[in-house]
């Protein structure tokens, strides 16, 4: 955002050289793609309400990145978009890993209990005679 004074009037005619020709400057090289702000991903991360509000931080950086892109500061937009992406990755991992870990623990616990029950079922199915108590 340009805050320098005096500001130029965008409707003012451009000054011409004495020879009357206008000159055009071209930028050579491949144009860089516009920076991504990851706004949709941030909105979904925020709506999921994950721990530590990482989705909300990602949303804040995404909005800042979009504002900088609209203002024309593409380097700041890339930097803020990168931070938003990092927070989105952290929020996604924080949302996916604990439930998957809990599922693995429940399945392995159930398998362990089933093996334990098979071994102890033989003990409980043993029939004793009255002569065993003499």
UniProtKB/TrEMBL annotation:
Residues 1-27 are annotated as: Disordered. The keyword Transmembrane applies. GO terms for biological process: bone mineralization; bone morphogenesis. InterPro entries: CD225/Dispanin_fam (IPR007593), IFITM_antiviral_protein (IPR051517). It holds the Pfam family CD225. Residues 1-20 have a biased composition (Basic and acidic residues). Keywords: Membrane, Transmembrane, Transmembrane helix. It is found in: Membrane. It comes from the Eukaryota. The chain crosses the membrane at residues 39-61, 87-111. GO terms for cellular component: plasma membrane. Its main location: membrane. Belongs to the CD225/Dispanin family. This is Interferon-induced transmembrane protein 5. It comes from Odocoileus virginianus (White-tailed deer). The gene is IFITM5.
């Amino acid at each position: 955002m340009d805050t320098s004074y005096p500001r130029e009037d965008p409707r003012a005619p451009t000054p011409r050289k004495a020879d009357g020709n206008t000159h055009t400057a071209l930028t050579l090289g491949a144009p860089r793609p516009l920076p991504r702000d990851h706004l949709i991903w941030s909105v979904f991360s925020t709506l999921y309400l994950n721990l530590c509000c990482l989705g909300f931080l990602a949303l804040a950086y995404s909005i800042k990145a979009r504002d900088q892109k609209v203002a024309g500061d593409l380097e700041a937009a890339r930097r803020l978009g990168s931070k938003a992406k990092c927070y989105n990755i952290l929020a996604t991992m924080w949302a996916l890993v604990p439930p998957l870990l809990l599922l693995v623990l429940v399945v392995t616990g159930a398998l362990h209990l089933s093996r334990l029950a098979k071994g102890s079922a033989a003990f409980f199915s043993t029939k004793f005679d009255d002569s065993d108590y003499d």
